[in-house]
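Provenance

Sequences were taken from public entries as deposited. Structures were produced by running a predictor on each sequence independently, with no templates supplied. The record for NitT/TauT family transport system permease protein from Kaistia soli DSM 19436 is shown for reference.
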Amino acid sequence: MAYGLRFIRSAWPVASALALLLLLWQFGAAALDIPTYILPRPAEIFVTAIAKWPLLGDALTVTLIEAVGGFLLGAAIGIVLAVLMILVPPLEALLMPIAVVINAVPSIAFVPLVLLWFGLGMESKIAIGALAVVLVVLLNLLAGLKRPEADAINLMRSFGAGRIGILWRLQLPAAMPGLVTGLRVGLARSTIAVIVAEMMGAYSGIGQVIYQATGQVDYLTVWAAVFVASLGSLALYGVLVAIDRKLVWWR
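Predicted structure for NitT/TauT family transport system permease protein:
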């Protein structure tokens, strides 16, 4: 009950702002008589989303599976690399320049290669999603693991703690806020990368629906697909925020 009240108190400003934006959009577009193909009314988008929900729902399921799969894979790789760099410091000097060079190129630029290597199925979308996540999780977690001061680390060593014990009891708790930040950014990057990859080549997914609807000049379906994708991303983000509150409960 208390958690539900806290959720309502934290969610109502966002819900109110979103409702106000939709109302301004609805009545502003009508007052200015903006053509539907330029800026449809939210009511039209909502009706289209309901009418085409069988198509959009199936596409959203595929996209969310790919985005979550890429997010989990990329986060796991980033976490493992960060921990290894802390335990074996020479690895940071060896691997970090490579990671920075790869990240200097937008992950979307690798989509044609990933499609060529893994095909048009889910595997290629999960791979491109993971690529978009790895470095942001790696950098945030690595910065958090380095946060404890040398005096605290030396104090634990004086009590006989080894490198693994210091990592588990001191460095990881200190790194949790940074890790959660990296995960939040990584989830958004994974979703964007997957949708763009679907637009460039896929059997299904929200990105493919957007691509096909654009080719058919069906702009209401395009907007409805974007609307549904936004709701799906918002739901994933809400789950991540709930996990954040459990993991970093002291903030």
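The chain has one domain: 40-247.
Residues 163-200 form the longest helix (38 residues).
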